[in-house]
Amino acid sequence: MPDLRSLPPIGVSLYRIVIGFLMACHGASTLTGFPVKATTGHTVSPTTWPGGVAAVLQLVFGIVVMIGLWTRLSAVILSGTMAYAYFSVHQKHALLPMANGGEPAALFSWAFLLIAIVGAGPLAVDALLTRSRPGGAEPVGADVPARRFTIAR
């Protein structure tokens, strides 16, 4: 039986993979109508502001988060993109996300903020690159384990 202490880090990786995949699908749907038609019923050009540019960011950074490359930076960018979408598109219709249709934007924003804080987990390209470096040098933007501090008395 596997050690149960190894499950939370793997859970973090699975959470990141699923959220990144969902965001990439959302961006691809908006740009191309694949894997399903966009929620608006039509696709947008990648050069259209803000919807097309946001869809490109969602597709590209969703894939990058999904594979776990430059995870924290990509998650911050996507969290900000979703916060911008919520406040610029949805907030003007009503205060609460349930009333203004902004639940997905709010949830994605907080989900990516959590990924930016927690990191990619062990099943990520970032972790693979860290393990493959001689001497264990940390690449820029790598996930660094939390350090424990003690208070001297």
TrEMBL record:
It is found in: Cell membrane. It is a multi-pass membrane protein. Keywords: Cell membrane, Membrane, Transmembrane, Transmembrane helix. GO terms for cellular component: plasma membrane. The chain crosses the membrane at residues 12-34, 55-87, 107-129. Belongs to the DoxX family. This is DoxX family protein.
